[in-house]
Structure prediction request, 71 residues.
Amino acid sequence: QSYGEVNRDVADPGVALRLSGLKPTKYDNIVASSTILGNKATVAAACIIGENGVVGDKSSVKRSVLGNGCK
Prediction:
């Protein structure tokens, strides 16, 4: 499998719950409580954002896995 395919598989809400122990939000994504979301930032379904992550203003994250501390 390619790296992108593995990221999509891991970000699947059912798989993410088993791997991280965190329950996906109502939008089917996992965003750590310490993540900072900028003004008008969006995180689509099938995304995981780790602890202390930062998503900048007007940014859009789709079908991605961002590890701890990613900015």
User: Anything to note?
Assistant: The longest helix spans residues 3-11.
